[in-house]
Amino acid sequence: MTQVTTAPLWQVPRINRTDRWVGGVAAAIAREVGVQPMVLRVAFVVLILVGGWGLVLYALAWALLAVVSPEQISPYRPTPKGATSVHRHLGVGLVTLGLLLLFRPFTSNVFDNIVWPVGFVLTGALIAWSRTTREAGGLNAVVRVVAGLVVAVGGILAFTALQYNLVNTVIGVIFGLAILSGITLVAAPSVVRMAHDLDDERLNRIRSDERARISAHLHDSVLQTLSLIQRHSDDPQRTAHLARQQERELRNWLYGAAPSGAGLTRLGTEIERIATEIEEAFDTRIEVVTAGDTEDLAPSRVLDELIAAAREAIRNAAAHAESPTIDVFAERSATTLSVFVRDTGIGFDPAIIEESRQGVRESIVARMERAGGKAVIHSVVGEGTEVELELPLRSLQASP
Predict the structure, then answer these.
(1) Same domain for 238 and 322?
(2) Strand 336-343's sheet: what is its strand order?
(3) Which domain holds residue 122?
(4) Could you read off the pLDDT of 221-265 as tens digits, one per residue?
(5) Pairing mode, if any, of strands 5-6 and 76-77?
(6) In whole angstroms, what is the distance from residue 228 CA to residue 163 CA?
(7) Radius of gyration over every alpha carbon of the chain, rounded to an integer in angstroms
(8) What is the model's pTM?
(9) Crossing angle of helices 224-231/236-255, nearest 10°?
(10) Cα-Cα end-to-end distance for the chain
């Protein structure tokens, strides 16, 4: 198995000999920062055009990385810098702009007429196309586009006005915008169609991957279980057990909650786990239904008490009730965690519980009282039993 090391936030870029045009410096820095290598290559080319300083920086970086950084032998995963891809690209642009300003006093003005207008246009484009999760569209999108246009057009006007006549500059910009608008009108349909084709291709690839994932899961679970059922068709008890086990697994896969964070859990997840263990141990059908279980719960003593009491109630029903099915309902409301365990077995009289039956008296009732909740037991001889467990959420918040 290939060992993947966890990289710190910043580290010396690693040169990959399989991903380079010249020395691999641009690709190494780009991967460490979290942008496409082409962005760094363009930045180096721009710096080379302005007096050749980019070539000096590239040579120094190559010499430094060749000595300090080992070649990439095992894969590693640099942590992307910045909150979004736009932030990372904007950071590269600002660093490039700072280097241009730093080297400008030592260079001629031959390339100023190209580099600076292009820089303003690229900056405006980044502003116009930037988007965060809080600003997906609407008025914010309009503001971004307008701000990008102001930066691009205003920057070009201000720069050229310093070198040429302002009137001629404005006229030139108007003609340039007119030409650009014409090109946009001609090319827009093709660009839009190409974008739609790329989106369709991406969606088809996602659907194909999802179908492959579902097919693999069904093969590894449902089809394998059906094969086992056919093999044990002469054993009804074994067949029923396999069917129940597969039904629970498939239900959890279809409707189960997403994995919780580290150290967190959910009431429904714990009850499902307990039901599966007891169902396999006692060969009894247990149906679990959950409601309102949409938020993770932090580990606590009182939550452990509730889960332990629920386990004991389900285990007692499976061991003593002689019921064909046990129904378990777990619910999280705005103020309470509740678990109901019901069977249609032989039942008993709660008023005459024997002292030896600590599973009811101590493991359920007293346990819930210690946790700040309550346990109510309803049972009729010959009809079945229902155990109600309730725990206020405020007890969870106050518990260590």
Answers:
(1) no
(2) 285-291, 325-332, 336-343, 384-392, 374-380
(3) 5-186
(4) 777 778 778 887 888 877 877 787 787 777 767 765 554 444 577
(5) parallel
(6) 84
(7) 34
(8) 0.45
(9) 170
(10) 41
